[in-house]
Amino acid sequence: MTGSTGVRTRDEISSEELPVVPLRHGGRWVAAAAIAVVVVWVVGSMVSNERFQWDVVGEFLFSEQILRGLLNTILLTAVSMALAIVLGTVVAIGRMSENPVVARGAWVYAWIFRGTPAIVQLLFWFFLAALVPVLGFGVPFGPTFFQVDTNSVISAFTAAILGLGLNEAAYMSEIVRSGLLSVPAGQREAAKAIGMTSGQSMRRVVLPQALRIIVPPTGNEIIGMLKTSSLVIVIGFSELMTSASQIYSRNYQTIPLLVVAAVWYLVLTAVLSVGQFYLERRLGRGLRAGVGARPAPVVEVAK
User: What is the mean pLDDT of the chain?
Assistant: First the structure.
């Protein structure tokens, strides 16, 4: 059926009569081809370049000294990040405190540890005995109940934990604070209205909701800590990079040992990235439930 002019309107034309023209993405194909050429060139150069000495890389990839350094790197990263997450959360809550002394103190902590390089902090803790030869516990300007030699307490491992953990805590405090601020103030007011204390509302209401904001950058910080741990080479702690440097200082095979260290860092980073992906997906399930889904209650009265 046609109109009075003999021309069919859009509604009169069926969808089967309309030609479907696929959208062309010429730029994507050009970019993909360019990337493929670069990847092939890089891989080919690395394989064909004899100076990489892949036989030496294979020889030391699973050597005892390298694996021992690898385990120390994992331990250092785990302990430092655990300290940073706990202390960073405390500092973040302190920043949001209504007590001006606590809030200013937390701000000063973040300012100092974010404002100085991590390598400076590592060296400071390692050479703490030069500033404080004896660590003591007692009454200020009064008797000392207990004291110990600083060098016996601050080992290379302890200095590495303090240097990396306290430095990272300053950055974690900002991440946690941003997550806490993302939760509407009405959630705290609702928790207070049903009789929750500030601590209970923080643990049961605010923090669970803030995790969706906190987890992604925290995963990035853990990966960053893994690589930053290589800085402890300056204080002689035997982690992955230190172990590689000790080997190439003896056999002068610098490039192959650096490749060995890089391979293990890439492996650990890949494992952490996969774990971060699944954790983020699990935390984000509620957001993907659908627009029409009935929201779960935010505040529940503890029985």
Answer: 84
DSSP class per residue in 129-174:
HHH-SEEEEE-TTS-EEEEEEHHHH--HHHHHHHHHHHHHHHHHHH
Average pLDDT over every residue of 252-266: 94
Separation of alpha carbons 77 and 137, rounded Å: 30
Regarding predicted confidence, which is higher, 286 or 114?
114
Phi and psi for 148 in degrees, rounded to 5? -150, 150
3-class state of residue 22 by DSSP: coil
The amino acid that residue 5 corresponds to is: T
For 142, residues 6+ apart whose C-beta sits below 8 A from its C-beta are: none
Tokens standing for 189? 């007011």
In 3-state terms, what secondary structure has residue 28?
helix
This prediction's pTM: 0.78
Distances (CA, A) of 265 to 19, 231, 271, 283, 290: 52, 14, 10, 27, 39
Residue 121 has pLDDT above 60, yes or no: yes
